[in-house]
Design brief:
The protein is α/β, with parallel strands linked by helices. It folds into two domains: 7-221, Uncharacterised protein PF07075, DUF1343 (Rossmann fold, 3-Layer(aba) Sandwich), CATH 3.40.50; 226-352, Aspartate Aminotransferase, domain 1 (Alpha-Beta Complex). Helix content is 29%, strand content 15%. The strands form three sheets. Strands 3-4-2-1-5-6-9 form a seven-stranded mixed beta sheet, sandwiched between helices. Strands 10-12-11 form a three-stranded antiparallel beta sheet. It has a two-stranded antiparallel sheet with strand order 7-8. A hairpin with a 4-residue loop joins strand 3 (76-78) and strand 4. Helix 4 (120-134) crosses helix 5 (178-188) and helix 6 (226-235) crosses helix 8. The two termini are 19 Å apart.
């Protein structure tokens, strides 16, 4: 299997001379590597010495050091280049004017995971907005969507629930790369910044991560494996509940549960559609941090057997419905705050449509829940076509 070339690989090989003479900024993190494990900072500094003036880091930090949601990262100094490292997950989540005044071009190289609530897209949007106001050019170094670019799933985000975990009406599993998302953002938000994407070579929309030939480097602290990313579009909903999403274990999001859950009863009541393409292994665990720290939790580990038929969002909604039905007295929705929203329920921000929570609470059949979002999902699939970069 030959590796695809990421945008960073293409920059290194034949696009870097276009940046000569410009003051450069870089938004990236520890997963922003080329096929030889070089960082964009190293590549830019070697090919364009003295031109990199500032570095930005997203949620979890430029080095990926910070663990949980709403754990802010401090600004710092890159000692090797003696340039500032500004955190865009701090007192600000958007580059401030004085930060962008130091540069002419902002280069963005972040590995997304293909799920609407992952915050890197929001950070990119904030950079596009700020760059648009100040007349700065933005260059996106594109990377694969690990879930592929063909399959879409879930309801569209309602505008009244736009937040840092959902800045636009994407479905939960959106099938887009960061470069494609940036093109959509500039169109729908009427941004005037000079946007350029350096596309990948060799990537096609039907590729899952294991077909890219690329090594997986954790884009965030609780995304250790490609398998994590594959279940994440559904398993992220536990962040809006008192059920552990597996933080504090070695396999977050694949493992989930709570002390009050009876896995045997859940399996017995679960709708068959919920287990399509996967196997739910009964599993007990003791988180070392986060929810239910040091308590024995009972639940499951999800094993994806068929990535083509597995629907992570539908699977997790089915599990959520069943847990509420069986453990109504013990189950709770998590209270705000959640990702800088202090009034709205975290589950509503995550699911992106109040009616989905209402359907889950009322026990609506999974088939009916899915049917309600299909028309809008098909419309989104058509509307994204002009912004797609890859076939």
């Amino acid at each position: 299997m030959s590796k695809i070339l990421t945008g960073l690989d293409c920059l290194r090989e034949y696009r870097w001379e276009e940046l000569k003479g410009y003051r450069l900024g870089l938004l990236s993190n520890q997963a922003s590597l080329d096929s030889n494990f070089n960082t964009p900072k190293e590549i830019i500094s070697r090919l364009l010495p003295g031109q990199l003036k500032v570095i930005f880091g997203p949620q979890h930090g430029y080095a990926g050091q910070d663990q949980d949601n709403m754990i802010e990262t401090d600004h710092s100094l890159d000692k090797s280049l003696n340039i500032p490292v500004f955190s865009l997950y701090s007192e600000t989540r958007e580059p401030l004017p004085y930060m962008l005044e130091m540069i002419d071009i902002l280069i963005i190289d972040l590995q997304d995971v293909g799920t609407r609530v992952y915050t890197f897209a929001s950070t990119m949007l904030n950079c596009l907005r700020a760059s648009s106001r100040l007349g700065k050019k933005v260059v996106i170094l594109d990377r694969p969507n690990p879930l592929g670019g063909s399959s879409l799933e879930g309801n569209l985000l309602c505008p009244e629930l736009y937040s840092f975990v959902g800045p636009y009406s994407f479905p939960m599993r959106h099938g887009l790369t960061m470069g494609e998302i940036a093109r959509i953002f500039c169109h729908v938000f009427d941004l005037s910044c000079d946007l350029e994407t350096i596309p990948m070579q060799g990537w096609t929309r039907n590729m899952f991560w294991n077909e890219t030939g690329l090594k997986w480097v954790m884009p965030s602290t609780n995304m250790p494996l490609p398998e994590t990313a594959f279940v994440y579009p559904g398993q992220v909903i536990w962040e809006g509940t008192n059920v552990s999403e597996g933080r504090g274990t070695c396999r977050p999001f694949e493992i989930f549960g709570a002390p009050f859950i009876c896995p045997e009863l859940i399996i017995r009541e679960l709708e068959p559609e919920a287990t399509a393409g996967c196997y739910l292994q009964e599993y007990s665990f003791r988180p070392v941090f986060n929810k239910w720290k040091d308590k024995i939790c009972h639940g499951f580990m999800i094993h994806v057997l068929d990535p083509y038929s597995f629907q992570p969002y539908l699977t997790s909604i089915g599990l959520l419905k069943t847990i509420i039905k069986i453990h109504e007295k013990d189950f709770e929705w998590k209270s705000p705050p959640y990702e800088y929203e202090y009034k709205k329920k975290p589950i509503d921000l995550i699911m992106g449509d109040l009616s989905v929570r209402n359907e889950v609470e009322s026990g609506t059949a999974l088939s009916a829940i899915k049917e309600r979002w299909m028309e809008n999902l098909e419309s989104f699939d058509r509307c994204r076509i002009p912004f797609l970069i890859y076939q």
